[in-house]
Amino acid sequence: MARSGVQYEDVERAIETLLAQGETPSVQKVREVLGTGSFTTISEHLREWRARREERRDSLPGRDIPESVATLAERLWQHAQEAAGEVLGEYREQADRQVVAAQEAVQEAQRQAEDAVQREAALAQHLADIQQRLEDRSAALATREAERDQWRQEANQLAERLRRLNERLEGQQAEHEQRMKEHRKAMAEREAQNRARLAQEEQRHESAEARLMGLLDEARRERQAVEKARAHRERQLETRLEALQQQIEEVNATLSEEEKRHRETDWARRRAEEQAANRQRERELLQARIDEQRRLLEQQSQRLRELESQLGRWLRHVSAVRTGDAAESGNAEGSATAEPSEKSSDTERER
């Protein structure tokens, strides 16, 4: 949609001016004539003017003209339209390229503006960073100056301390020189004493040397005696070693015989152990049989006691039945008493 800055009438007057000058109207030339306006608005008005011109050409009224002239005019009109279409296409392509270039220029300008804004922001940030670093460095400089003043004070103190130490060192050096003089004097006196003592020691050494030579001769004689005794001792040890070697051989032979007897004894012991194990197994079997016989005997004894109990109950029952006859009861009681006695004696014998 066209903006209100440039109207269609303005574009139409500019086109008429160009046609009057014998120039073909285009977006660029129309804008040069107007001196203002955007390419998009001028292009829209230019297309509208061309459309209206085509409509006017198509709607021209017919006149009474010869057919040959009309045919020729029609052909000329077609050729003119084709030429105008080609020129119009070129103009349109040129206008489109100019519009695209203008849009690209606008985008480039916008990018440059954005870049400028970003650079401005970056510069502002950089300036802020520089100011912050300046403040930090100012604070650091103040700290360094304070430290420098402190170091100067410490240096002054150290210089004063060094001066005192130098004075003390000079005093100690003087004292040391005095002591060295006294020491050299004492050393001279001591050297004289040592020389006198050395002369005495040399005299004593001569007498000691004579005594040492005598002791050396005596030591040589003692060494010879010791060597003789050692040779005799070595011969005795060799003789004893031979005797011990012979004893070792005899002991080895005896040991071999003992090992042989030990093997025989070990074999006999293993045989005895096997026999003892066999006897132990036989004893265990016999013990098991004895236990089984005892168990059977206990079962028979239990059965016998049960039979005796049943017999006693039966006898009591019989005595209760025969209570009517006193004589018969007495005889029955005597016989009953005799029978249990006999059975009891038989039971005791079985036990």
UniProtKB/TrEMBL annotation:
Record flagged with keyword DNA-binding: yes
InterPro entries recorded: KfrA_DNA-bd_N
Chain intervals for the UniProt region annotation (Disordered): 255-280, 322-351
Domain KfrA N-terminal DNA-binding: 7-116
Keywords recorded for this protein, A-Z: DNA-binding
GO terms for MF: DNA binding
Basic and acidic residues: bias regions: 257-280, 340-351
UniProt feature coiled coil, ranges: none
Domain of life: Bacteria
Protein's name in the database: Replication region DNA-binding N-term
